[in-house]
Amino acid sequence: MSESVAPASVEPRVVRAPLMLGLIAFPIVFVWFLFLPGFTRSLRLVALAYTFAPVVVAAAFLMVSAAVLGIAEILGVAR
């Protein structure tokens, strides 16, 4: 006999104060708690963007400054 079991409906979770403080202070550590069942997809995406945006901005800054220094060296401009 084959019985299908419907998954239990999961009520949306609320981000409580301790988790919010952890997300603000150390997002790379606490963002993974948002992957527990019940948190919305949009909340996860916003938290991941908040977590990795500084890394992307820092990498872009390093690439641009390295390019500018390389061009200045090619042109012979003294620092």
Write the layout of secondary structure elements.
Layout: H1 17-25, H2 27-30, H3 41-75
Describe this entry's structure for a reader.
The protein has helices spanning 17-25, 27-30, 41-75. The relative contact order is 0.09. By secondary structure, it is mostly helical. It has one domain.
Give descriptors for this structure.
single chain, 79 residues, mainly alpha, 61% helix
Give a short summary of the structure.
With 79 residues, the protein is mainly α. It is built from 3 helices and no strands.
Helical content (DSSP H or I, runs of 4+) = 55-70%
Biggest sheet statistics? none
Average residue-wise pLDDT: 88
**Radius of gyration, whole Å:** 22 Å
Report the end-to-end length measured between terminal Cα atoms. Answer: 80 Å
One letter per element, helices H and strands E, the order comes to HHH
Low-confidence stretches: none
Helices, by number, come to 3
Q: What portion of residues belong to β-strands?
A: under 5%
Protein structure class: mainly alpha
Number of strands: 0
Overall geometry comes to: elongated
Estimate nothing, just give the exact number of structural domains.
1
